[in-house]
Amino acid sequence: MAYRDWYCEDVLSGKLEIRRVWEDERVLAFHHPQPQAEIHVVVIPKAHVPGLLDPMALDGALLSSMLQAIQQVARELGLDKKGFYVRANAAAPGVTPHMHWHIKGPGIPMGEISFLDHPVPKYRQSKGYLESNITDRIDRR
């Protein structure tokens, strides 16, 4: 089943009223209409780019605008002082077929990121390195 591109069909067409946060000639950043965090902004290209794996996603000017949008949104909404995270959904069932990045905050939920949940590279598996870093991370929780 093909999913519809609601970014092109509803947001960029003007059918859906949105609250813009920032934009330039290539990118639009707006408050998500169904937020999943206190602050939830979506950054999208104005041109149709099917997803992160599409060759069009490699356009340097587009990527520069996407990152500038993240920086501007973070500063404007105070996330630069409180922390935030960026999530890029891609290549999964149910994902809207239009490249988009979610900015969520404030803060980074500990359930979303954890040193203990990720494999440790071989070069970092020395006894002293692991003990000190795991202890530091656990103490901060």
Note down, in words, how this protein is organized:
This protein has 141 residues and is α+β, with helices and mostly antiparallel strands. It folds into 2 domains: 6-109, HIT-like (HIT family, subunit A), CATH 3.30.428.10; 110-141, no CATH class. The protein contains 4 helices and 5 strands, in the order αβββααββα. The chain has helices spanning 6-12, 60-76, 79-82, 127-140; strands spanning 20-23, 27-31, 39-45, 85-88, 101-105. A hairpin with a 3-residue loop joins β1 (20-23) and β2 (27-31). Mean pLDDT is 84; it is low at 114-118 and 127-141.
How many helices? The count is 4
What is the rounded Rg? 18 Å
Overall geometry: globular
Q: Give the number of DSSP strands.
A: 5
Low-confidence stretches: 114-118, 127-141
**Helical percentage:** 25-40%
Numbering strands along the chain, what is their spatial order in the largest sheet?
A: 1-2-3-5-4
Largest sheet: 5 strands, antiparallel
Which structural class best describes the helix and strand composition? alpha+beta
User: Could you say what the CATH topology of the largest domain is called?
Assistant: HIT family, subunit A
Quick recap:
The chain is an alpha+beta fold and 141 residues long.
Descriptive tags:
141 residues, alpha+beta, HIT family, subunit A, 4 helices, 2 domains, disordered C terminus, five-stranded antiparallel beta sheet, 18% strand
Record the SSE blueprint:
Blueprint: H1 6-12, E1 20-23, E2 27-31, E3 39-45, H2 60-76, H3 79-82, E4 85-88, E5 101-105, H4 127-140
Antiparallel strand pairs: 1-2, 2-3, 3-5, 4-5
